[in-house]
Write a structure and sequence with these properties.
heterodimer, A: alpha/beta, B: alpha+beta, four-stranded antiparallel β-sheet, 2 helices, 4 strands
Chain lengths: 212, 95
């Protein structure tokens, strides 16, 4: 196991400085992952699996950059954030400057098909497909195309789990672990009637095969 | 945008790479420039250091024409006249 150079509560505090989207839009399911969940994912990837330190990391659908910035704070060689929303990318770039990781981060306002290369690690908090069915699968497929190790969040539930596992296998990936997590999603995104609600999500760790 | 980013970029429309880069303004990073796909002739702006490689339907014609006119001295004629999804051909070169 890697020596823990960054304390978890310190990482959470840093990640809380990453500003969320100024004008989230429902159809893109733009909510910002909480500092706690982001720290939990990054901590697992870094210290349990050694998938972050000195690695190239890409965050597909990065929003305002919390996961990509966190990866660099934990020792990633370089991080790339890509999002189809230019406004979110502008915010991500400003966040990277604020947290002094601009030199090691790259931001692209683009469709995820604008990248073709291979990356050590893909971080993925895709739209859950509530507003747009199958949206998460497009992200997953691209991850399996470009990534060696993939961390992907999906709505929990047994049938969804079966489906996602099969989908990953079909695209030459292998699920090594699933972690249950709770995420607070704002009302805006149509899951429920309360202001915010904790929903159960599954974090998948996936090994891709396309990387030599 | 860092120049090295070109290594990983592909045209999101036809997946072609490598793409071509022209830099208009540069400090530590590229501030303004244009990325072009030699295959489909699509062009993508770099504005305020950010490369924008969006699908056609998410691009605003008015803003894109402003960009083309602003940098027309530094953009190849082929892109100015035949570039996709917007070009200056029908609009008249000087606008």
């Amino acid at each position: 196991m890697q020596k823990r150079l960054v304390r978890k509560h310190h990482l959470e505090k840093k990640l809380a400085e990453v500003m969320p989207h100024p004008e989230p839009r429902v159809h893109l399911e733009q909510y910002t992952i909480s500092p706690e969940v982001a720290a939990e994912i990054l901590y697992l990837a870094t210290y349990t699996y050694n998938d972050i330190i000195n690695k190239t990391v890409v965050d597909l659908g990065c929003g305002t950059g919390r996961l990509a910035i966190g990866a660099v704070l934990l020792g990633a060689k370089e991080a790339f954030g890509i999002d189809i929303d230019s406004l979110a990318i502008k915010a991500a770039k400003a966040n990277a400057r604020k947290l002094t990781v601009a030199r090691k981060t790259n931001w692209i306002a683009a469709d995820i098909n604008a990248i073709h290369d291979h990356f050590d690690t893909v971080l993925l908090n895709p739209p859950f497909g509530v507003q747009k069915r199958r949206a998460d699968r497009v992200f997953l497929e691209k991850s399996l195309e470009v990534g060696y190790r993939i961390y992907s969040l999906h709505k929990s539930g047994r049938s969804n789990r079966e489906f996602i596992k099969k989908f990953i296998e079909k695209h030459d990936g292998r699920v090594t672990d699933i972690f249950e997590m709770k995420m607070a999603i704002p009302k805006l995104f149509g899951f429920h009637t309360k202001e915010r609600k904790n929903i159960k999500v599954d974090l998948y760790r996936i090994e891709g095969e396309t990387y030599a | 945008m860092k120049k090295k980013l070109m290594d990983i970029l592909a045209c999101p429309i036809d997946k072609y790479y490598p793409l071509e880069l022209r830099v208009f303004e540069e400090k530590e990073e590229i501030i303004a420039g244009i990325i072009t796909c030699p295959k489909c002739l699509r062009w993508y702006p770099i504005r305020d250091e950010i490369p924008e490689m969006l699908p056609d339907e998410l691009r605003t014609e008015k803003d894109e024409l402003i960009f083309l006119r602003k940098w027309k001295e530094k953009i190849p004629q082929k892109i100015l006249l035949e570039g996709k999804p917007f070009n200056l051909k029908e609009k008249g070169k000087t606008g």
